[in-house]
Amino acid sequence: MAQATFADLIRSDIPTLVDFSAEWCGPCKMMAPILQELKTKMDDRVRIIKIDVDRNPAIATAYQVQAVPTLILFKNGQLQWRQSGVLTTENLFSKIMPYVAP
């Protein structure tokens, strides 16, 4: 199977949470277990992908990501929600739930 492109992933009807981060970013490292916990809680209702802004500068520029971590939620190719900085699992869950099917 061919690897899905970023555009293919965000066009999905499954909400896709994109974690824009960088290897050198301390707060980004803090988000990793939070996103893992969210994935466990949400199961297949949301897809979570990580984009390294240093390795994918064109994607970061296209979405005007100027700080990391920045989380952006897409559904059917449309930006639904975005926020920069570290969130707790509970806060992140409550922010994205309105965009996720029950």
Describe the structure.
- Strand 1 (16-21), helix 2 and strand 2 form a beta-alpha-beta unit.
- The model has no long low-confidence stretch (mean pLDDT 93).
- A four-stranded mixed sheet has the order 2-1-3-4.
- It has 102 residues and is α+β, with helices and mostly antiparallel strands.
- The chain starts with 5 loop residues before the first helix and ends in a 6-residue tail after the last helix.
- Helix 2 packs across helix 4 (89-96).
- It contains four helices and four strands.
- The protein has helices at 6-10, 26-42, 57-62, 89-96, and strands spanning 16-21, 47-52, 70-75, 78-84.
- The chain has a single domain (6-99), classed as Glutaredoxin (3-Layer(aba) Sandwich).
What is the global morphology?
globular
Low-confidence parts, pLDDT < 50 over ≥5 residues?
Answer: none
Query: Helical content, roughly?
Result: 25-40%
Number of strands: 4
Derived from helix and strand composition plus strand pairing, the structural class reads alpha+beta
* Strand coverage percent: 15-25%
Query: What summary fits the major beta sheet?
Result: 4 strands, mixed
Sketch the topology as an H/E string, one letter per element: HEHEHEEH
The first-level CATH class is given as Alpha Beta
What would CATH call the homologous superfamily?
Glutaredoxin
Provide the CATH architecture: 3-Layer(aba) Sandwich
- Roughly how many Å apart are the termini? 30 Å
Structural domain count: 1
